[in-house]
Amino acid sequence: MARPGASSAHQLRAPSRWSTAVVGRRVAQGLLDAVLSSLLPLLSLSLFLVAPLGAGGAGEGLFAAVSLLVLLLAITAHAWYWVARPISRRGQTTGMRMTGIRVVSADGMPVTRGALLVRWLVLPVDLPLIGLLSMLLSARHQRLGDRLADTVVIRDR
Q1: Is 0.70 surpassed by the pTM of this model?
Q2: 95 near 32, Cβ under 8 Å?
Q3: CB neighbours of 154 closer than 8 A, spacing ≥ 6?
Q4: What is the Cα–Cα distance from 56 to 36, expressed in whole angstroms?
Q5: Is Transmembrane helix one of the keywords (predicted)?
Q6: Nearest CA-CA partner of 103 in 142, 136, 152
Q7: DSSP string for residues in 42-108
Q8: How many CA atoms lie within 13 A of 36 on its CB side?
Q9: In b/e form, how buried is each residue of 22-43, taking b as 16+ CB within 10 angstroms?
Q10: How would you write the pLDDT of the chain (157 residues) with one tens digit per residue?
Q11: What is the CA radius of gyration of the chain?
């Protein structure tokens, strides 16, 4: 049965065990995406480190403001990469596209923004060992974030 508001053209069949047997690809994808999703935050941090802020009274307030701005930029960049961007790319990050996998809802429907948000919020817990163990012990190779978001990662090619 299709979800309310879901187009039948986007409805997929429920993922099979074979289509979710992508642990090796997910490890490669995780490494690629860890690097790619950190580029913008690292760039902003490097700009912050070379910016002359001065010392003393006014400099401390400026330092705190710039620190908060860098933190917000890093969080926003990560959220864009892991949540907003995959919605417009058939459930794929750049690393997923490169390794031939994508995330879908457990029923085979396209992944929702809410599910991607849950997966992203749990990502720090899943990396590196908990997620790998969870994938190896799960019949559908789901990490903790997948289980909580009711998603699976499938072969795309």
Answers
A1: yes
A2: yes
A3: 15, 19, 20, 22, 101, 102, 103, 104
A4: 36
A5: yes
A6: 152
A7: HHHHHHHHHS---SSHHHHHHHHHHHHHHHHHHHHHHHIIIIIHHHTTTT--HHHHHHTEEEEETTS
A8: 17
A9: beebbebbbebbeeebeebbee
A10: 444 444 433 445 667 666 677 899 999 999 999 999 988 778 877 776 766 555 555 567 777 787 788 888 888 988 999 999 999 999 999 999 999 999 999 999 999 999 999 999 999 999 878 999 999 999 899 999 999 999 999 998 7
A11: 19
For residue 80 the two structure tokens come to: 């864009």
User: What tokens appear for 79 in the block?
Assistant: 């959220």
The single residue listed with the structure tokens 């950190």 is 38
> What tokens appear for 59 in the block?
């400099």
In sequence order, the β-bridge partners of residue 100 are none
